[in-house]
């Protein structure tokens, strides 16, 4: 590890957005510390992808933290009693209402873990792949939420009180469309076949009809590409 580099904690789900953010943090010269979660989600494909991405993009360390949000339920991603919605077209995905795939307080919980790790690393930088453009209506992806969390975080730690940490939450994708995010990653050498974003995979493959797959697929299509996680990419 290069001690001359600034350290940054990067929230890494293994999906398209967080992978792009890890590549951006690396390109900006940070020594990256990737943080993923086993939080009671339905499947592990995303975590398998996160391990691959962290290795390929040279993270100094990759930690998978264990928490269990499934004990609370309330989301189709953590509660087997709730079905993941599927649609015939991306035009059926609405940002006008918060979908059942929203996991209560997930980003607040994840950022709190990132804040704790950043403090122990002597880091003031956390990167997260939230997006306010091509997203599914999640309240914890909005700029005003990130700004409020950052203000709170700087009141919350010993390092902050003592003046050795001034936390900055980096959101490089927050105003990008999915297509713009993909192009940014491609420019940085990201291979999106490493990634997995599907909410409801079938035999380890993307279902291609959940909100996440449809939004991601539209991004590739706008660039004249086929999502490498889709079965049509194998043709």
Automatic annotation (TrEMBL):
<dbReference type="InterPro" id="IPR014729">
    <property type="entry name" value="Rossmann-like_a/b/a_fold"/>
</dbReference>
<dbReference type="GO" id="GO:0008616">
    <property type="term" value="P:tRNA queuosine(34) biosynthetic process"/>
</dbReference>
<keyword id="KW-0067">ATP-binding</keyword>
<feature type="binding site">
    <location>
        <position position="213"/>
    </location>
    <ligand>
        <name>Zn(2+)</name>
    </ligand>
</feature>
<feature type="binding site">
    <location>
        <position position="198"/>
    </location>
    <ligand>
        <name>Zn(2+)</name>
    </ligand>
</feature>
<dbReference type="GO" id="GO:0008270">
    <property type="term" value="F:zinc ion binding"/>
</dbReference>
<dbReference type="Pfam" id="PF06508">
    <property type="entry name" value="QueC"/>
</dbReference>
<keyword id="KW-0671">Queuosine biosynthesis</keyword>
<feature type="binding site">
    <location>
        <position position="207"/>
    </location>
    <ligand>
        <name>Zn(2+)</name>
    </ligand>
</feature>
<dbReference type="GO" id="GO:0005524">
    <property type="term" value="F:ATP binding"/>
</dbReference>
<comment type="pathway">
    <text>Purine metabolism; 7-cyano-7-deazaguanine biosynthesis.</text>
</comment>
<dbReference type="GO" id="GO:0016879">
    <property type="term" value="F:ligase activity, forming carbon-nitrogen bonds"/>
</dbReference>
<feature type="binding site">
    <location>
        <begin position="12"/>
        <end position="22"/>
    </location>
    <ligand>
        <name>ATP</name>
    </ligand>
</feature>
<keyword id="KW-0862">Zinc</keyword>
<feature type="binding site">
    <location>
        <position position="210"/>
    </location>
    <ligand>
        <name>Zn(2+)</name>
    </ligand>
</feature>
<keyword id="KW-0547">Nucleotide-binding</keyword>
<comment type="similarity">
    <text>Belongs to the QueC family.</text>
</comment>
<keyword id="KW-0479">Metal-binding</keyword>
<keyword id="KW-0436">Ligase</keyword>
<dbReference type="InterPro" id="IPR018317">
    <property type="entry name" value="QueC"/>
</dbReference>
<protein>
    <recommendedName>
        <fullName>7-cyano-7-deazaguanine synthase</fullName>
        <ecNumber>6.3.4.20</ecNumber>
    </recommendedName>
</protein>
<comment type="function">
    <text>Catalyzes the ATP-dependent conversion of 7-carboxy-7-deazaguanine (CDG) to 7-cyano-7-deazaguanine (preQ(0)).</text>
</comment>
């Amino acid at each position: 590890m290069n001690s001359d580099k600034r350290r940054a904690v990067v929230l890494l789900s293994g999906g398209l957005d967080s992978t792009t953010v890890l590549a951006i943090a690396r390109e900006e010269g940070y020594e990256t510390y990737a943080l993923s979660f086993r939080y009671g989600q339905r499947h592990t494909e995303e975590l398998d992808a996160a391990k691959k991405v962290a290795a390929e993009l040279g993270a100094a360390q990759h930690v998978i933290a264990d928490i269990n949000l499934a004990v609370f339920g309330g989301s189709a991603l953590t509660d087997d009693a709730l079905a993941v919605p599927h649609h015939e077209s991306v035009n059926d995905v609405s940002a006008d209402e918060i979908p059942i795939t929203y996991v209560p307080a997930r980003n607040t919980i994840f950022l709190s873990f990132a804040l704790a790790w950043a403090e122990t690393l002597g880091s003031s930088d956390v990167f997260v792949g939230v997006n306010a453009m091509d997203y599914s209506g999640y309240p914890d992806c909005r700029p005003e939420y990130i700004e409020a969390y950052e203000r709170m975080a700087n009141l919350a730690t010993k390092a902050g009180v003592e003046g050795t940490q001034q936390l900055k939450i980096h959101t490089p994708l927050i105003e990008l469309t999915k297509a713009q995010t993909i192009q940014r990653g491609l420019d940085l050498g990201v291979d999106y076949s490493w990634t997995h974003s599907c909410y409801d995979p079938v035999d380890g493959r993307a279902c291609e009809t959940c909100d996440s797959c449809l939004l991601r697929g539209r991004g590739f299509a706008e660039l004249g590409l086929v999502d490498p996680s889709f079965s049509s990419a194998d043709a």
